[in-house]
Amino acid sequence: MAKAQRGRPKGARNKLTNEAKAAILEAFEKLGGVDRLVKWVEKSEANEALYWTRIFPKLLPRQPIEPAPQPEELPPVKGALIWRTPAWAKAAQKKSQLRAGTAKTAATPRPKAKERAKTAEEKLAEIPCGWDDY
User: Fold this and answer.
1) What DSSP string runs through the chain?
2) Who is most buried in 37, 45, 69, 102, counting CB within 10 A?
């Protein structure tokens, strides 16, 4: 089933617009028409300026709208730039997320059952410092 047409057809004028134009034309004729308009224009230079700048341009056909100029085609890219977020920016972002409470918590790996936490003395003993050579 075809879709029903609603409203006035494309390009048709509004009924109110047509009536308003007819009323303006009737008033123009009753006020004296063309002869009266010519007398009014000739009466002063201000009237003539109004006629040529305000009234007459409305009678001219509208200029067609020119399409926007297309930008020039860019040469092909011979490589790519990859944006890497600097470490200081990542730290600032993480800090702001922590403040806002929106940071994703990373799961900290739990030590295996066989492994245990080393004491400070054990950690120092692993560091090769060469003090024994003296």
Assistant:
1) -PPPP-SSPTTPPPHHHHHHHHHHHHHHHHTTHHHHHHHHHHH-HHHHHHIIIIIGGGGSPPPPPPPPPPPPPPPPPSS-------HHHHHHHHHHHHHHT-PPPPPPPPPPSS--PPPHHHHHHHS---GGG-
2) 37
